[in-house]
Amino acid sequence: MSDSVLQVELVAADRLVWSGQAKMVIARTVEGDIGILPNHSPVLGLMVDGVVDVQTTDGETWVAVVDAGIFSVAGNRVSILSEHVEMSHEIDLEKARRILEKAKENGITDNGAAHEIRRAEARIRAVEKAK
Questions:
Q1: Contacts of range 125-128, beta carbons closer than 8 Å, 24 or more positions apart
Q2: Are residues 19 and 65 both part of a single domain?
Q3: pLDDT at 2
Q4: What's the whole-model pTM score?
């Protein structure tokens, strides 16, 4: 692998969601957004529910939604490990909007409801960003 390329893997608990070469990866950690370019120093971080943006070496942009998980960078390899990973093209935008609206109507009464709202918002952002 070239020193100017990242090998990226987006991994859910039940499957490898996406793997490929990239020029840049952007993800949200508990400390804020982080952008990774080739030859980045090693990083191990905790991700929050949000969007991951992968800019491939082919000039494509892949956008995914992740739950909280682990973000690891070492030797031009980026691993994103999360319970759930969903690519933006797999998301039904109208369904995500309905879920968000219903969750907001029901109010935030516990951590589960707050998580559902954050996830719905992330799914909508991912689809809109991928357009």
A1: 125/50, 125/51, 126/51, 126/63, 126/64, 126/65, 126/86, 126/88, 126/91, 127/63, 127/88, 127/91, 127/93, 127/96, 128/93
A2: yes
A3: 65
A4: 0.80
